[in-house]
Amino acid sequence: MGYYLADGIYPQWPVFLKMIRCPTDPKRAYFVQRQKAARKDMERAFGVLQARWAVVKGPTRLFYPECIADLMYACIIMHNMIVENEGAWVANWADEDAAGSTHGVARDPVQHGVPHGEAQRLRAFVSTR
């Protein structure tokens, strides 16, 4: 049976593994260290997805669980595709505002989330056509 890393706000259920507050032996201290690292990695991953897609930010209590899983898989796959596509540009980043453009190719800044305002929405709609 799997478990979820959780903190003190969750109920006392067997699937929620809470942190050991004061580890007494080296084995438990190592476990706490690894658990903290795993929680930070997961929080960072969800933060990246929330920054990129507004649908991940919102409440999902009214969604079907299968739809939530499909939505998360789709967001993860699209994120990985975007990172793979932008890989060279992200790796060779330079301050374009100060230098003009990188490698002689001018690129528009990457926009994430939902455009706000009519002009931004229209510009985003026209650029996808």
UniProtKB/TrEMBL annotation:
<protein>
    <submittedName>
        <fullName>Uncharacterized protein</fullName>
    </submittedName>
</protein>
<dbReference type="InterPro" id="IPR006912">
    <property type="entry name" value="Harbinger_derived_prot"/>
</dbReference>
<dbReference type="Pfam" id="PF04827">
    <property type="entry name" value="Plant_tran"/>
</dbReference>
